[in-house]
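A protein record pairs a chain with a discrete description of its three-dimensional fold. The shape at a given residue is found from the number at the same position. Here is what such a record looks like in full:
>
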Amino acid sequence: MIPAKLARVTESSRGQDTRAAPTRAAVILPHERGGRAQPGEAAAQRAAEAKLAEAVGLAASIGLTIVHSGILPLRAMRPSTLLGEGQVETVKQAVVAQEVGVVVVDAALSPVQQRNLERAFGAKVIDRTGLILEIFGERAATREGALQVELAHLSYQRTRLVRSWTHLERQRGGFGFLGGPGESQIEIDRRLIDERLVRLKKELEQVRRTRGLHRHARARIPRPVVALVGYTNAGKSTLFNALTGATVYAQDQLFATLDPTMRAIRLPSGRQVILSDTVGFISDLPTQLVEAFRATLEEVAAADLILHVRDAAHPDTGAQRADVLGVLGELAEGPNPTLDEGWPGRVLEVLNKADLLGGLSAIPAMPGTIAASALTGEGLAELTAAIDARLSAGMETMEVKVSTADGARLAWLYENGEVIARTDGAKAIALTVRLTPANRARFEQGA
């Protein structure tokens, strides 16, 4: 949330009901013809209808009432308005006819383009970056999440408040961009923003150091970590709840989860692992939000196994897969175990929402994939078995003998390894056990 001294809002003194009515919004997608194809599965350009549907979903997820939407093909992008003159006039007519208060442009707008479109439409205009920032502002639950959102928001607003001051005569109040009309102008300048940014970065650095200590502490009681990643709204949190019995917030909306959540689960072999639910990725991730994904990247990079959850029923599932891999690539800095040559061996793709396709049989079997429905539970037994098998593949089998009097050492092996065979003797117990290389080293050092 933006500090009060950076954004002051006058309260109504007339005693009237100030509850805001739902904001009527229009969502438009400027679609550039003949865009360059991306490599891999993204070579086929994402259908404009799917992109528009996603933008509408993003806008609706923060309570906007969508009364108009449309795709605007672009022959060339205009520096002043991005859209052509005729397109600007067409949108203006729709804005007036539908009494639109906010126009969402699913593209990156410069401060000048945003100002000119607001003047032309007579309504507030936000671009894709502003919209996602608004969503993050509503969903961040942890202190780190809130700090990250504020940092991203101020970095984004800094250019708009300084370079495009003239369009803020009647700036709406509240967090971000959406609030009641008729409230006072946000009085903010470059010095205040810069001072706040410096303080935010210091606070975030402290939070990161604390999280690093927590990760180091978890490493002392080693359990494999399995991280869930995927496109937003692919069903990660629903799958997380189904596997762990937790009650993590899961709704059919974009970015329902922003902060990493961890729970322990027991696999069929008896081994305990830590399952981590993470924020969903999205195409065209705003650069201001890269840092907001840092916590997710760190958890994914440290994971022993990555479950890439995909919405198998989504018409654009192939492009979404490419987007997730692309975001991971953009976030990587230097050598990263997530992106090295061994990464494919640490990824298991979960083709979720099989129930929407008629069941597991509707999804062709492919190497490295498991079909499932987190909602109905179909395929979850096969999924946990596949997780078990993947984690066991990197384990080492060893023969050990433990004194019958050393109950703590015996319990450690059962807790941190997979006991395959056991023979009880009068003075010692002979075990055949599978351990990760790290746990084997700990055992041999007297863990």
